[in-house]
Each structure stands twice: as C-alpha cells, then as structure tokens.
Amino acid sequence: MDIVALLQCLQPYVPASTLRQCSRRVRALLVMTGRVTMLGLSRWAGTGGSYRTIQRFFATVLPWGLLFWVFFRHHVYCPGDVYLGRGR
Prior knowledge:
Mean pLDDT: 88
Shape: elongated
Strand content: under 5%
Number of strands: 0
Order of helices and strands: HHHHH
Largest sheet: none
Helix content: 55-70%
Distance between the termini: 33 Å
Number of domains: 1
Low-confidence stretches: none
C-alpha cells in the first residue's frame, strides 16, 4: 500500500494514533465496493476499525488547512511553478 506512505509527511502534525486510524480508513476506502458509509468502513477496515472507532475518528477535530498545506507542499509543490489558490 504505497498510498499510505504518502501520509507520513503529516506525522509531526497529528498524533500517531490518529495517523494510524487514518491509514486504516484509506485502506478500507480503496478496497470497499458500493456506498461509502461509516458502517461499510468499519466492515472493510478489519482490526482496529470498529464502528465506534470510526465515529470517534470523524468526531476528532484536525487542523485540516495545515494538513492540506503540508501534503501539497511535500508532494505537489515545485518552486518554479505558479499556483492559483482559492479560499473561502
């Protein structure tokens, strides 16, 4: 699962348990079929992916703006290119 390795750049900004839970959700999202629901995620997540754990994960407040910026800067950004950003 090379896609989970992409999340390692977020390690300094979120707790290890949250990052581990996020990687389980990513794996479950990639293999599940049909509608994406919390119940479906809990079925496909395997060990450590109970329905209650998934509810807690989605209730966790994360600094999404910072995480998106770190991910962009680490995996997409090229110093010579021009980027157009939009916020709300």
